[in-house]
Design brief:
By secondary structure, the protein is α+β, with helices and mostly antiparallel strands. Helix content is 35%, strand content 22%. Strand 2 and strand 3 form a beta hairpin. Helix 1 packs parallel to helix 2.
């Protein structure tokens, strides 16, 4: 088990680990409410990468990592993930009036 300190390094190494053996790779999230700690783990039974945090702001980062893994699992390990990582959510247009939609 290797605890990776840098978030960017963890994402890069975990994506690389998944791409080398997609059939055996697993991604696990564990949250301990009593400690307020979140542990992310990516393993293929030969190599294990872990990232531990207690910062609430890392929840958004975890959501982006989930999207990366969902994309890789659905489209295949050779998929280009730059559209997933660089994609920002667009703001919803403000609603006008209280009437029904037509």
């Amino acid at each position: 088990m290797v605890y990776v300190i840098s978030w960017d390094d963890f994402v890069e190494r975990s994506v690389q680990l998944f791409r080398t053996s997609p059939q055996k790779s697993r991604y696990v999230m564990k949250y301990r409410h009593s400690d307020g700690k979140l542990v992310l783990k990516v393993t293929d039974d030969k190599e294990c990468l872990k990232f531990k945090t207690d910062q609430a702001q890392d929840a958004k980062k975890m959501e982006k990592l989930n999207n990366i893994f969902f994309t890789l699992m659905a489209r295949g390990p050779e998929t280009d993930i730059t559209e997933v990582t660089g994609k920002e959510q667009t703001a919803q247009p403000a609603k006008r009036g209280r009437g029904r939609k037509q």
